[in-house]
DNA sequence: ATGCCTAGTGATACTAGA
């Protein structure tokens, strides 16, 4: 079973790229972030045509998350619990083939310091509290998406340039460590220790051509799920396609 | 240190991304 995560950076603007990748890669489940579209503008027909059921939590202009699945997903949550005043669409969760899958788009948090950075850390705390309710379940759980965190220096092409960026601030890395300490496995790092792996390259200065990237899209597996991990990787070539997102699809294979 | 690029909104240069 193959599960992918992909920050599409505008599901309508990138629809041809998304469909081409789905057609080529045929993941069983695809978690999408940054739809940048309200619910009524989700391209439901095209996704169905491609062979996928879908649930989505959209928002006008920004954010938005979705779970695509070849078998029908059973929605178990939308919106991150813990703050009724938070209206940003950054979390959706479903049970698919007995696996609980949380799809998240963690706030960027720039510029640092400021209210956006504060919001990022608060969102991280709420997410960590929710993750705590899932990690010890006896059913498999996956929390995947755009975490907007480079966990270590190995995950940044030039760490020294990023120390005051919200994606790499010590507070952010500390928050990620606290989350991991609950007992999650970082699937890509687990299978490829010490390897330089990126999932994002910005549009500036030919970052992709220079391989000036970041590893910010992650798969966190609870212990029950981690036992079934077979492979993990990044569909790097998709980033090189015309009109592609600045992220590349990232995936795992499970027993 | 800044802007480099791109999408969305809505019809203008903005915000936001990372």
List keywords for this structure.
single chain; 255 residues; alpha+beta; six-stranded mixed beta sheet; 14 strands; globular; DNA-binding
In short:
With 255 residues, this protein is of the alpha+beta class. Helices cover 23% and strands 26% of the residues.
The best one-word shape is globular
- The overall pLDDT, averaged over residues, is 97
User: Quick one: how many beta strands?
Assistant: 14
Distance between the termini: 7 Å
The major β-sheet equals: 6 strands, mixed
Strand content: 25-35%
| Element pattern in H and E | EHEHEEEEEHEHEHEEEHEE
Bin the helical content: 10-25%
Radius of gyration: 17 Å
Low-confidence runs of at least 5 consecutive residues: none
Spatial order of the strands in the main sheet? 3-4-2-1-14-13
- Alpha-beta classification: alpha+beta
Number of helices: 6
Explain how this protein is built.
By secondary structure, the chain is an alpha+beta fold. 23% of the residues lie in helices and 26% in strands. The strands form 3 sheets. The chain has a 6-stranded mixed β-sheet with strand order 3-4-2-1-14-13. It has a 6-stranded mixed β-sheet with strand order 5-6-7-8-12-9. Helix 3 packs parallel to helix 4. The structure holds one DNA strand of 18 nucleotides.
SSE topology:
Elements: E1 2-7, H1 15-25, E2 29-33, H2 44-49, E3 53-57, E4 65-69, E5 74-78, E6 91-96, E7 99-105, H3 115-135, E8 141-146, H4 170-180, E9 185-186, H5 187-191, E10 200-201, E11 213-214, E12 217-221, H6 223-226, E13 229-234, E14 250-254
Parallel strand pairs: 1-2, 7-8
Antiparallel strand pairs: 1-14, 2-4, 3-4, 5-6, 6-7, 8-12, 9-12, 10-11, 13-14
Helix pairs in contact: 3-4
This protein binds one DNA strand of 18 nucleotides through loops.
